[in-house]
Each structure stands twice: as C-alpha cells, then as structure tokens.
Design brief:
218 residues; five-stranded mixed β-sheet; two-stranded antiparallel sheet
C-alpha cells in the first residue's frame, strides 16, 4: 500500500501570540527546559550549523553583547540540530582561537523535534539545517515577535536588542514605537478609535499620528 505519511497536514507555524512550545533538552550548560525561563524575557534563536562562517560571526557578536541583553533582563538561549558534542567543540574553538567565550546555553536537537515544533525547518526538507529563526518570548511564555533569515544572511544584534527594548516598552499598551525607535526616543500615542475623538482632533492626522515624549526615559 502507498505510504500517505507525506500527505499529512503540516503543523501550523508559530505565530505572534502563540505560547512557545515547551521542551526539555541537553545543552552546553546542562539540561534546560524552556518553561523554566518564565518570568523573564527570552531570546530563543536558532542557527543552521556549528563551524559555519555566518553562524560564527553571529555568535561572536551576540556573546559580546550578552551584558546588553542582561541589562534588559533578557535571557539568551541558542539552538541548532547539531549534537551537544559538536556544540562543545565549536565553543571551545571560538574561545581558544578567537578569544570569545560563549556565555549562553546552546541546545542540541538531533531528532529535529524542537526545530519542527518551532517551524525552524520544513517538515519535507531534505536538509536538517535550520533557518536563522529568532523568537522573542515574554515572561508569560508568549511569542511576541519572530524573525526568519536565510542561511546566507547574518542577523543584526543591534536590531535584536532594539526589538527586545521596544517590546518591553510597549507591553502595557500605553504607547507604540515609530520606525527606527531607540530607548528614550519619542513614542507614538495609540490612535483614537471613537468618532468623537477623531472629529475633535486639532488636525486631520492628529487622531492617528501623534508623537509624544517618553515619560519613562532616563
């Protein structure tokens, strides 16, 4: 009889607002469980493979920025489908040859269970290499933002930091961040959604586009 397994519906990709799938896995810092990070912001990011040029450049940059993520109370957790032994050999090479210690755990995923659960690799893919996915997870375990890059394009660590800061600043719904916002910049006021407020605005764009100073800026 023909095998219909390839015709099974694929799992729905992770979307903003989803609770991040929980897992327990080995890592370079010992066993980790994703739900143990509840209560803090978490940047969970995948890389296609150890001992690769773009991934190396990213890990060096993220490691050097670890204190900046910590200042935002954001924990870092990396992932790839390579084995724990490969991860350990790679981070030793980065330390011994390039002088950079990797301070965050790297999760192994040789069975691709985590990769499939988060949509990091297509179920029908002929390669185990994951895309460059980053999941910005809030203290309640909810995915608040995500980015997907191809294997050939490195991510911007500054943009990762900016995204965390913007998500934290807007999490209470009192403000929105404009294009290119940085901490301390002016914020956008959430638009008026009632006719009375719209008609009472001083100018035609005032009801949906108003910048205001950030009262929390230090």
């Amino acid at each position: 009889m023909p095998d219909d397994s390839d015709n099974r519906p694929a799992a729905r990709p992770i979307r903003i607002g989803d609770t991040a799938p929980d897992f327990i896995a080995r890592s370079t810092a010992g066993p980790v469980r994703l739900s143990d990070y509840r209560g803090r912001w978490l940047l969970f990011f995948s890389h296609p493979g150890d001992f690769t040029p773009v991934c190396t450049s990213e890990f060096l940059a993220i490691a050097r920025a670890a204190d900046r993520f910590a200042a935002l109370d954001c924990v870092l957790l990396a992932h790839s489908v390579d084995s724990l032994f490969s991860h350990l050999a790679w981070i030793r090479a980065l330390r011994d040859d390039l002088g950079v210690a990797i301070p965050f755990p790297i999760v192994e995923d040789p069975s691709l269970e985590i990769a499939h659960a988060f949509g990091m690799v297509d179920a029908q893919s002929f390669s185990a290499a994951t895309v460059r996915a980053a999941f910005f997870i809030d203290p309640d375990g909810v995915v608040r933002a995500l980015t997907i890059y191809p294997l050939t394009v490195g991510r911007s660590v500054d943009e990762m930091l900016r995204t965390v800061a913007a998500l934290q600043r807007t999490s209470d719904g009192s403000a929105m961040t404009p294009e290119g916002w940085q901490p301390g910049d002016d914020l956008l006021v959430p638009p008026e959604l009632a006719a009375d407020g719209v008609l009472a605005a001083d100018n035609p764009t005032g009801w949906f586009y108003t910048l205001a100073s950030d009262g929390r800026a230090r």
